[in-house]
């Protein structure tokens, strides 16, 4: 495990494993990983940078310390952006740009080409739900709980939960109840509804398993993995026919890859194939 | 509990609770709440009126008496609309307008800004399935059962089930089987597949719990709740990126609300905030 | 049971039941139903032909012999299509057309107007997952397992899995994990996540039950059944409001059917109605 | 010409011609047809009512007196809607509903099933441009001029101009220049760019010609005319393939009309066919 | 010029020029090219076949004899399809399939990868307008005239005019007037509104010029030409951002073509490049 | 006129006028403004920076020296990006990212909130057409000519022309002919088809007039102007109803601006209003 000089952030710890796995940890130890503007910007920059780093093939996101996060940092005046201006329209203009910046940080998990496994323990509050639904695969510990907290701050979630949560869990009734009431959803229910797809006794077991899955993904053809993520994102947002049409064009180039004969050869010779980076 | 003079309908009973909760009951005691044109029109008018009443913050819909409903009222010649005209095209024209009217009554639950909890017991037949899927949250008793009955009448459901059911339960295979066979789905399966998100022993317990949930919702910031419902509806029907863009514009105004400082102050002072109506 | 001369294929066995049920079996006994180009073309032609045959009201697809399929046939050089040409662009052009042909074969299950029940036992590998998600209802035996195998060949699935699987199982996290890792999903998990909606001890029980369900569907009004499938497909790919609008136009003609008075009369007289073919 | 008791409005004059043509005039003689809330509501109600009146087959909209309109009525505090509330979010909520009401009045021209010919003379300011672009066919006199005036009031047009004008005139560059500068476009340029499709020396000639065209339209099969308008609106807002699919469903009923054999018979016998109302 | 044995149709004459240009003529000399079912099917098959023939690089469509076409052939009972069945729903079902077949024949011009120049003289009635708007480039003689005739038959056009005409001419007002009134539009107006982009004194001059343009197109890189047509069709039906995204994927393969270095070399050496077929 | 230190680029000259107008000139004097990667990146950065500079209210883009541009710079190996990699799939992956970067530079004109006037003289080749169609308003001199040159390089345009040109000129037939043949379109035809909306004898007159228009725009309420551009872009890419809905939400905040009372007061007092920056 190396701590790449390329990935130094104030509020994130990044570990690069030689197999092409990056492990990103939320890291604000004094504030229980409370989410402030600086952390959001770090997430945005970190995942955009990882996304352009073809030596990285899979990513894990978890929280350092006692909890995934303690939620939004009230010391940071996030929600007051744009206030100085006295004109409502000008404030609205500034606020919209601010929300779009925030959204782009959460969406960085979705837009980065490599799969992102989000491994969560203890508290997953408010924007942390927005954040984790932008990942590809979600794991949780038995003591984890999930709270769409925005309603208790007097606002509707605006950085991803309302868009992605219902599609992630496939249960409209539950998604709405969580958003309207702000109640906690505990690990069992989160597992049952599919928000998390594996449940672990301890954080350590979870991280170990996440690493194992990440290594499996990192060992596969990056043409296959990156294409699958890209096309899954595209297809979620389009009709089946449009998804198929786009996929046909995409694969008209990608099927010309050397990874396919390599894979078949590996399969025939019963030896794992090794694929070069994208 | 008051019975508002504003909400008098032949086929619905409406109770207004002082906390801002409206409880609407299907009410055709002699016909086991069979759904006829007059009831459909009452639903349309009632939910449109509730939707414009900013003193109402959450709504419950249930069935008065022994069953949620006994299904469509065959004494009402619903399915014969447009028949008098002898020209097929002119009949089609009239029928389309009639279907659109009917759809608008079901969709009134979805379009009204406040969350709607549909609490169902015993029989939920045919159009009742269309109706309940247009609500936000669904509860059911252990003796409830759900039947997409249209196939047995020789028609495809046309007032919402085909659009909303697969999205609500997140299981295409099951939705299709129900629609093609017209079989009953009992409470356990309905709970397992997510059509209903809570299961109750008795109707009384269900109504009590629905009221409790409705009161919780009614106590929250109406800016937050109404925005969440509006944005959930919008986001279900658009790509993630389009949902995010629309949300950013929406919240550019909504984040300027007094409810946010009120909420934070309440949070700091550990006293529940009180929010004015929309 | 008759083996219609109309439905003779090298790689499929088709049985026509007098009740209007067609049972299609993948049939390459020497190759464990491995999927080659000829089989794909047979599927395309067979389901397009069934789709135009109004005497057929429901279809079952299963695998002859020991397994649903052993996956793609490596003896067939599927993945090398377009190779002879030396220009990358011209190869891409040819490959795109080839993928679109392949997609059209899988989508033939979805586009044929009658409901298709896919009944699977033992191995369901790679393109078999694409194939089964294009069906309407999926059944599986306890020894069945499902593998999104493409990643191990160095490519992203391009004939339906990425488009349909997440919508079928309603769990994004799981769908992505399966696509990225290529791991087996066994029958229990497939049942739990909704990929299959019934689980059977043996293949025989499964086929018997599938036939029973198919016969039930075949006994219903074809106007109702065919309309329901068509509108479910349409509504999956459109917003709720667009789905409703299209449905209203569709039913403006379909509600003028003789099947409705027939159904009501049957209902009144407690005798099953008999409906003529489409 | 009769002045139907069904069509009495404070701010509109409606003349019903026996051939099935309605002529609606903006009518606020003391205010040069300045557009206030009452007039907008009259437009909304009038066109919705006409839309349900199958004896009406074509509609003309023009302005009574010296000018089509003098623009928005500043005495009416349109732009201050929602102001009383002191909370920005609540004002935004009210304003949105108010804009949607206003939009629905303009769109009433587009949504009413019959073709609407808008015949304009002299000033066509601000919301009058929104209004006229919602019509089907536009005529103008040589002294007419068109001004997207909103920019000079400090706001973007929000009741239709930005949506429909570029599609109507097919020139993006010009549409943008008009919206950004608020300059007058005179009749010649309006004719050249296609905003109006006929140019007349006098208002009298224009009305006469509009009536002639309206009578021609009213003499045609209402199935054909109403279908064409409906499908043109739908197709403008969808891809070509989606427009074709919707049209095929629509016409599957409409081609069963008696108007087709009537038309063919009339054609053969060289006598005009007479069609009954929708 | 050769008359390819591959392109023999009863109602079309096809001439293949050695430069890769196909000239298709409507050919029913005894019926003035009246459009019947057999001709429609010939168009469908012919353009689908041409679309798969990579030796063909550009296509011209014109009418043999005195007129482009005399319109729909009333001797053919096109509009009576589906009539035998007595049930309205079953007739509607058949009619929809028939319309979709007809649409697919018209759309064959749009879907075939090569550019299609439609060269028209004298009468262009009814479905001929549907047909020509599915082409890429339209030329006309000074004696040509264009009539959206469907309204006079009691139906809305359903094979392309309502979808494509407004997009082709960029004038909504004019498109609607033509559809509602069924009036003739003569060559000058057709040229002015952009329906045709060149105007010719005689049919001979027109065909000669069309051939010249077709030869120019046929001499270009087929990768460039076929990609441009495909992407123009796609972009017309999607947002600018979606069009750009799809184009980027498409060109990620196409930019690897040998045609680019060939083109640059030709440019440098001032010699025309020669490109191999697709 | 000041040359802001904030806007220093190697290949662009930027002049800032005190009224809030920025004049950007393509500036590669030794290469006749040939477009290379460095210039594209300068455009991307410059327009993104201008877009965030609220002191700028309108922008002009023109070409320094003898011609707008001489087209793509063949000395720059644009079209060879991604070549080093030997795997087709990996090259395709790199090329797609490169095209997306290039597209984002062109789209920077469209995405920047202020209106952009593109003033063109003499040659407007290849990517220059992509570039100018991303602007809001286009002016041209009588000696200007426009060439969709990509076809002669063996590729389809991929940075905007195929998406925007047909929507800008509203003539599908012409757009396709230009793309397939690569012929020059001279100023007169460009004016007639609406590609440019004003025609000038000399470059000097054109720049003067562009500055005049830009100053007019800069004097208007920036809330009104920026909202109009944003909503025109949105509405071009959505259905009319979706455009209206989005506009209503947008203006629910923007109508609360101080610019409206300022405007009305200015109007009443017949004195121009002064608006603060966004």
From TrEMBL, chains A, B, C, D, E, F:
Matching InterPro entries: ClpP/crotonase-like_dom_sf, Ech1-like, Enoyl-CoA_hydra/iso, Enoyl-CoA_hydra_C
UniProt KW keywords: Acetylation, Fatty acid metabolism, Isomerase, Lipid metabolism, Peroxisome
GO biological process, one term: fatty acid beta-oxidation
CDD domains: crotonase-like
Pfam family, one: ECH_1
Sample GO molecular function, one term: delta(3,5)-delta(2,4)-dienoyl-CoA isomerase activity
Pathway terms, separated by semicolons: Lipid metabolism; fatty acid beta-oxidation
Subcellular location: Peroxisome
GO cellular component annotations of the record: mitochondrion; peroxisome
Family statement: Belongs to the enoyl-CoA hydratase/isomerase family.
Name of the protein described by the UniProt record: Enoyl-CoA hydratase
Species this protein is from: Circinella minor
